[in-house]
Amino acid sequence: MTIKVGVLGAAGRMGRAVCAAVEGDPETELAVRVDRVAGDGIETSLDAVTRAGAEVVVDFTVHEAALANLHWCAANGVHAVVGTTGFSAEEIADLSARFDASTANAVIAPNFAIGAVLLMHLAAIAAPWFETGEIIELHHDKKVDAPSGTAMLTAQRMAEASSEWGSDPTTKTVVDGARGGVGPGGIHMHAVRMRGMVAHEEVILGTTGQTLTIRHDSYDRTSFMPGVLLAVKQVADRPGLTTSLDPLLGI
Ligand code: NAD
Predict the structure, then answer these.
(1) Are residues 93 and 171 in the same domain?
(2) Which of 2, 36, 122, 194 has CA atoms 20 to 30 A from the CA of 133?
(3) Does residue 40 surpass a pLDDT of 90?
(4) 149 lines ligand 1 (CB under 6 A)
(5) Which pTM value belongs to this model?
(6) Chain-centre distance of CA 239, in angstroms?
(7) Could you tell me the pLDDT band of residue 158, with boundaries at 50, 70 and 90?
(8) Which domain range does residue 233 map to?
(9) Total number of domains constituting the chain
(10) 161 band by pLDDT with thresholds 50, 70 and 90
């Protein structure tokens, strides 16, 4: 039995990659593609999801559309896997209540790259054993925000795992920003913007006579697909709302 999947935002960059991944997996079947604008085999209404008998929808759209889509999924008993970013804490709380009351479940994950999720987990495990830790995130030269959301989340997880970070010895700054920005827990964060790169993150931890470097590299959008497919296959067995990939990975 294959899982029938509807892809929302199917004409977008991530949506197209999801369609290809769903079509390429023997356990999943692409039942319907939906986007804002009709196109080659693309529908514009969520009614098409019902007509196609999709059991799970995958949403990579924009924040407001994803919110409306999630409300529809909870009301119509269709499981949702959502990669769209930008939900507030209040929206997550409201969605949690809606999915608790629904026959459908949802997985919303700000990062579907399994390696990046593991990097954050490993950095938090390592944090208490090191006195110094800094984060370098490296992205393509079109990224407008810095540091990346994943780097911020990594610093937050490290700061939650340890409060014993050494102080910055710098007393003279020759070039403004040479020590990067200061994130959660006082952890220094450095953002590199580089043509040719995609999305990369490195955590360096140091203690007496040793350093530990944990690094993850995303080379293209396919890096998110194993995580998306994992969520598509598990969402029916995860009651209510799940807000990260961690429990799906057993961490
Ligand atoms: P994109 O602009 O290429 O695609 C978005 C698509 O959504 C477009 O085709 C647009 O027409 C469509 N859309 C807009 N409103 C819609 C609606 N009401 N119904 C259906 N379709 C609608 O963007 P992208 O690069 O594919 O990214 C999409 C989202 O995924 C962003 O929020 C981005 O931050 C997020 N993202 C998340 C991860 C993750 O791992 N969670 C990874 C990459 C991107």
Answers:
(1) no
(2) 194
(3) no
(4) no
(5) 0.93
(6) 20
(7) very high
(8) 3-108+221-249
(9) 2
(10) very high
